[in-house]
Every structure is written in C-alpha cells, then in structure tokens.
Amino acid sequence: MAKQVVKRTFTGSIQNHQQVQDDLDSLGFAASKLWNVARWTSERVWNETGHIPEDGELKSYLKSHERYSDLHSQSSQRVLEELSEAFVGWYRKRQNGDSKANPPAYRKHNDAHPRSTLTFKGAGFKLDTNNGRIRLSKGENLKESWSDFILCDIQTRPDVDLSAIESVQQVRAVWNKQRDEWELHIVCNVELDVSENNAEKTAGIDLGICNFAALAFEQQESELYPLNCLKQDDYYFSKQIARCDDSSSEEATRLNGKKSNRRKHNFHTLSKHIVERCVDENVGVIAIGDLSGIREDEDGEAKNWGKHGNLDLHSWAFNRFTDMLEYKAEEADISVKRVSEENTSKSCSSCGCERDANRVERGLYVCDESDLVANADVNGAENIRQQVSPSLATDGGDRSNGWLAQPSTFLFDTETGAFVPQEQVVS
Questions:
Q1: Could you tell me how far CA 309 lies from the centroid of its own chain?
Q2: What domain count does the chain have?
Q3: pLDDT tens for residues 220-252?
Q4: Are 352 and 394 in contact (CB under 8 A)?
Q5: How far apart are alpha carbons 47 and 42 in whole angstroms?
Q6: pTM for the complete prediction?
Q7: Kind and range of the H or E run holding 183
Q8: Is the pLDDT of residue 315 over 60?
Q9: What residue numbers bound the domain in which 180 lies?
Q10: Are 344 and 206 in contact (CB under 8 A)?
Q11: Does 208 lie in the same domain as 176?
Q12: End of a domain among 163, 194, 225?
C-alpha cells in the first residue's frame, strides 16, 4: 500500500455550545458588520471610479477601520476576500447573459445582522488533539484581556482520528440554520493508504449541458449521465424563490442554500459513482475535457451562446465537478488528465474526419467516411479518451460502433441516493 496526503474537511459538533455561543454570535455578527462596511466602501468606489475594488484594495482601505479589529486579522481578511469573490461571481453571471443577477447584498435582515461564517487561519486557532479542543482567537475589540479566546470542545465522526491529521490549514465556524447552532469545519491534510493500481486502461469524459457527463471506456463500452435531477431542482427552487418578497430574504437564502447543498450532493454522488465504475473496469487514467475557457473567446471576452445557453452555461459547474472527480480518483490511484476539447464534437472518433455537418442533430453524430453512427456526446468522450490512449480505430482498425450509438443511461434515484440504469429508476 502506498501513502498519499489529501485535503479533507471534517465537521465537528461543539459539545460546550451553550458556553461558547454568545462569543461565537458576537464574532458572527461582527463579520457581518465588516462585510457591510466593505460592501458600502465598494459601492462608493464603484460609483466614483467605475471600478470595483479587489480584496487587496479593500484590505488597504479598511485595515484601520474599527470593525476590522472586531475579528482576528486573518479572519477579517477572509471576510473581504469573500466579498471580492462574490462581486466576481456576479460580474461573470452578467457577462454570461443573466440580467437578473444582483450584486452581493448587505448582510442585514429586519435590522438584525445575520451570523456570518468565520474563518480562522494560522495564528487564529490552536488545535488540541489530545483533549478534543479548538481554541479560536477573538478580535482586539471583543477581548476582555490579551489572553481572551473561545475554547470549543468538539466531537467528530467516530471514524475521524484528529491525532492522525498531518496539518490543519484552517477552521471555519459555520452557523447551521437547520440545527440552530454553530459547528466547526476543520480543513486539513490527511495521510491515506492507497492501493497500487497498475491498470493501464483509459476512459474519457465529455461534460455537457443536456447530458452532464458522457463516459467512454477503452474496452468499447459507454455510459450517459443526464443528471436531470439538477434541472428539476433548478425549476423547483426558481419558482419557490420567485415567490419570496425579497431575493435577499431569509427564506430565499434558505432555499438557495438547500439548492446548493443538493447540487453538491449530486456532484459528489456522480463523481464517486464514475470512479467506482473506472475501478471496476480496471481504468488507470481518466481523460476529461478541460472547459476552463469555454465562456470566453480568444480575446478574453464573454462568448454569446444565446439567452438560454448563457444561463445554462453559467450554472454548469464543470470545474467544481472535475475537482471532486480528481480527489476521489486520487484515492483510488487513478490519474485524471484535463485535455483540450477543441474539435472533439466535430471529429469522428473512428476515422478522425472533421466536419460540422457530421453532427446532424443535437444527440446524433454520423460520418459518411467511416459509416459511423454514434451518440454525439459519447463520440466526444471517445475523442477525449483517445488523446491519452490512441486507438487503432483511427488507423483504420476494425471496430463495431454499436456501443457508441447505444450507450447505457444512468439516472439518479432519489429513493436510494445512487445512480442506477435508467430502466431501474422507479418513477
């Protein structure tokens, strides 16, 4: 067995919550106030210069502000970084055609500041693994003495051994609205035993909008993952949020959070399922299309994919999914390579011929040169796979294309919480 260090986030419940809640509330409210000060500052600079300040500029502007000292300096810095990231996300939505997207709002509901997530890094926390405690630093303004801090007794899952953790990078205090209490998220490096995988087979993954993922194996087998549950969630939650009086209301925030959690769960489940399928098929390398520049043209300007295409593309969280796939594959000793998707939708995976006309319909690819008839997304996945493992098919080899034309389709089953063949899904 080989050793491998990977990043993990463990959730810990606070056993002495009643004793520390007031202190954590004070910090959570202080973080919201700092956010609001930074939001006001950003708007003022924006109105005067037409430029939205980045996090470095905000840190320079607000370092001497009274609210900045309510938190540990690194915690205050993280609040400003989060605001800058929120502005970037909003700007990208607008670039991609989402005219309804709003800039980050003030954190204030009914004249009450909500509890913001608190991030502690470096000197901002200390972990005592022997006693199961984490010490969190307060800001200078909220300390009663120089040694004042918050001492949390924590409990993690039984299978989590904090003493085996290589290094803790940060601790986040997060307000759990469902449980009405704080919890701690511990971000750390963990050393895992991984099997020595000598597999040499490959698989290719094409990410898309209609079919979220198409998977092609070297041994002439293919699968589709439409992930219709995401579209259903988008439709349902959009209608529920539209009924809210204010898009920044507590109910709208709750619905957005629930939608985000469901999406994250589906991505985790799908990436785990695909890695398990690759292990079953003795795959050692997964090639996946790199879509990092799909939203921009050669000059860095936003591409126009049409009204609906722009909205779909913005919600297409391919980077997030690929990140999940990479670390799950890493544990199974499978390498993931991001490769170019250029021309993979136009090229024939059998003869290499490139013609836009070959894609006769959204889901059908036909090549007159090689008599190939294939599902268009599977053809793209096979082209991606061939970038890391060239096949004799492109050199005139004999290959049946039935597996390209009729892939297995897997759907998410809400009853079992797993991906199963389409015919097994109970409606």
A1: 20
A2: 2
A3: 789 999 877 877 887 888 888 888 877 667 788
A4: yes
A5: 9
A6: 0.59
A7: strand 181-194
A8: no
A9: 2-194
A10: yes
A11: no
A12: 194
